[in-house]
Amino acid sequence: MKKFPLLFFLVLSVSVFSFECHKEVTKNNDTPKLTKPDTIPPGSAKVSAEVVSIEPVDKNSAGPCAKFPCIAVVKLESIEYGSAFPVMSVGKNFRVKFNFTLEPTSKEMFPNMKETYPGLKVGDKFEAVVGYMETANDNEPAYTINAYSILNK
Prior knowledge:
Distance between the termini: 62 Å
Number of helices: 1
Order of helices and strands: HEEEEEEE
């Protein structure tokens, strides 16, 4: 029984430390440095990226992604890590699912949504918080984006 308080304290200490510090990698693969996470939730990263290609609509999907394109290949330009987010290489491409589609949002698409997004095209540069979740389905990207802002318009 005496081991329980010590084990609890150890787990609590490691958890607090892991939430306090994370690595930040900026443009041109600068040396990682420790920073305090201000707004990046665990399992997420703040990225700047460019849309390289947009995949066609998947008619077998559900919701708005059955009518509008949701998946794009993007080139990573910079990244700030939240805790428990996998390491990604600046300059590399990755697939990401935009949960609110790559089309401009409208009340017809999402009647209860207050935010609006302008849509993205190939060549657009944007900034977003990317979530990561491992998937068993290879067709679904492990990376997802809810909100984004365009950088080059």
